[in-house]
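User: Fold this, then the next.

Assistant: Folding the first:
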Amino acid sequence: MLQCVVVTGSTRFGGDSCEGPDLHRYRVLRIDRPAESRQWRCGNASLELADEQNQRLVWITEDGRRSVWSRTKEVLAPPPGGGVGGSDRSGEREAPEDSDKDVDRIAFPWLLNNSAPEPWLPLDVPRDILYDGARVAALLDIRQMIGARSEPQERLTHILMDHDLHPTRQGGDYLIPGVDSPLWQTLNVSETMRRSIVQRISRIPHEVLSQRVSWSGNAEVWVGRHKISCRSRDIQALNARWVPPFQDERKPLEIARLLALYSVFDNPLSNRRNGVHLGLDPEIRHHCDFELFASPLNAAVQNGRFSSKWPHVEWRFGSIGSYPSVIDYLPVNSVVCINPPFTEAYLADVMARLAELKLRFRLRIAVPILEAPWRSRLHSSLPVPQLLKTYYDATAETPADVLHPTLLWEDPRCPPRLSKLRDVRPAGEDDLDDHSGRAHGLTHDDPHMPASRARREGRDHSV
């Protein structure tokens, strides 16, 4: 153990400096390496970087404050005649040539007591991943607070799904609405629980360092105390789509972060995942230039040709942006596959832009038949559609029956596909009128079911 005198502006290591010598405080702090840790400690800070070349140490506290120590090279007057052990022309002392370990060149010799320090969590975790861990943990806590109530659970999924399109997003972040957002008033819960939810959200910035994202084995991600089971097919898909160097040390952590983010859409009362992972048959998407509303988990086109929910994270897996901003960057007359989430905000937004999208691109688009203000425009906007019978579950690599009548419309200008698929059939006006789904043999637990039934069963996934 060593002791050192540190001049700080507060009683804690690395505090804000104060002006004036009278405000400085001298504290004696010890530098040691606890037996249970391989990281050097000084007070309440850990050694983040030891730069011998520049003779500099960087200490960081758990709340992110930083202190940099530097040591100037020792300068001696050149002895008469110079010689071994003397100095060079700059006056800096040279170490003897026969020195075994060049101890004289070591700025901080006490570092030689043990091997070089390894990263110490959470200081080695990027700040954005720390914050995402806190966000995911808060949302999973909120789902536990809501408990076995299907309607609020599904409403929470819709709030999170539609949040980036909601006009009152101010005050929140990219994933969670702010504590003052009116969206929380749409949750059918008691006022006491609503206050508890708001309080839990407000604690997110204070729990950044305590909700660690990590792997437990090869198929489970831990976020704080929450355990998220992962499917091997999803992990393989993310590995295959990884854009940075394959040996990038951040890759396992980025994969864990993305799988944790998508888990917030899952309804714990359902035996299936959220429908955001479902897509049109790959045979359809392979004949498209771009996919909107895809993800690295289910995209069928190559990297750089699909948009996703969180491009600031998913660019590492090939995403080019998110809807609707990505539309401006797609080449005119491209063949674009559009499969929006079956939520109120997204469907209304897509239908409001449909005329513009049809002018700019050649579309292959899927739209559910729902009771909504835009339903009356379906027949005129999407003439001669087909009735979609199945979606494709990329994780299970199998078709999934559609539980709600859904139209598939392909622009006549689209290049013909090699084979007509068995998952579609021509749709008539009767299909537009009959939206109950009773006549279509809908038996699969799929996100595209009527909202009323979904609320009863807790399985209204959103694609």
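Now the next one, as you asked:
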Amino acid sequence: MRYAIIADIHANLAAFAAVLSDIEDKGGVEELWCLGDVVGYGPDPRQCIELLRQHKHVCVAGNHDWAAIGKLDVPEFNPDAAVVCRWTAQQLSSEDVDYLGGLPSVMEKDDFTLVHGS
């Protein structure tokens, strides 16, 4: 199997699309492994979640993913990140919240343990 490991998309749709295009240009993969922080900082949280879900993938939760849905306290973030988390929360649909809320913090996949860095 051939995988692509991605992380810290942070709602940057243009960059995420460029990475996916590069993956395809290099022959594609059977599955994307996302190590969290699909949302946060960037302007396109919903679109990034949607684009990720269009691909065969597995994903673990990042701190920004959980902060945006209230599973992690925003006061633990620096002031700018806290503002962005609150803004992101207002952008998400109920399906987005369900998706992010269902992400595990740790996942075993083949011989690997997938986690986010923070």
